[in-house]
Amino acid sequence: KAGVTQTPRYLIKTRGQQVTLSCSPISGHRSVSWYQQTPGQGLQFLFEYFSETQRNKGNFPGRFSGRQFSNSRSEMNVSTLELGDSALYLCASRIGGTGELFFGEGSRLTVL
Amino acid sequence: SQKIEQNSEALNIQEGKTATLTCNYTNYSPAYLQWYRQDPGRGPVFLLLIRENEKEKRKERLKVTFDTTLKQSLFHITASQPADSATYLCALEGAGNMLTFGGGTRLMVKP
Fold it and tell me: What is the DSSP-derived secondary structure letter of residue B87?
């Protein structure tokens, strides 16, 4: 069974640009969560989608948004990038709305 | 406010010894607690889940305890090996089934 797949793995953007990250969950998993990881802040929860509905949202500005499609694949978008948005963005899926998370390898974003 | 605290200092131990990592939390009433392992540049990998009505859970060389009175979980790795060197994260599920992670503790096992 394929794991959680995130694309792209690495990307470099400049301030003010926007970026879209993609996540394909494990087949059959209906929940997708996104986390931002930085050395100083650790793993910070961004949002969770379950059956195409946003179920939870972390404490991030409105520049961070996401969506989930009917096939459970998810995308997150960050607009008007800032230097502080440089981080490893991790996507994780789980079968239902609770329980263990299965993480992808992450998308490392560098903002110059 | 809700807090999950793990020792931010690295834990250095000798191969063969037992490593014990601590996770303390406040203002949570979690139904369960999870532990993950993360290697540099990789996503976290799930290790163990323990429910509030379970005092202890074991899996091979791993053992987790959960004390809801003390609001603390202990994670033990017995007969530690250099390959166990990694960052270990605890996570609690709060309102809305949202999973929140602690800052992690880096374990270094020296041969």
Answer: E
* Cross-strand partners of B87: B38, B106
pLDDT tens sequence across B4-44: 999 888 999 999 999 999 999 998 888 789 999 999 989 99
Q: Are A7 and A107 in contact (CB under 8 A)?
A: yes
Which one-letter DSSP state was computed for residue A26?
P
Q: How far apart are CA B39 and CA B76, in angstroms?
A: 18
Q: Which of A47, A4, A10 is nearest to A24 (CA)?
A: A4
CA neighbor of B89 nearest in space, from B56, B29, B49 = B49
Q: What dihedral do alpha carbons A29, A106, A37, A59 form, nearest 10°?
A: -50
Q: Which of B97, B99, B103 lies closest to A42 in CB terms?
A: B103
- For the stretch A58-79, what's the b/e string if a residue is b when 16 or more beta carbons lie within 10 angstroms of its beta carbon? bebeeebbbebeeebebbbebe
Q: Which residues of A touch B98 (CB under 8 A)?
A: 45, 48, 56, 58
> A38-87: per-residue pLDDT in tens?
988 889 999 999 999 999 999 999 999 999 999 999 999 999 999 999 99
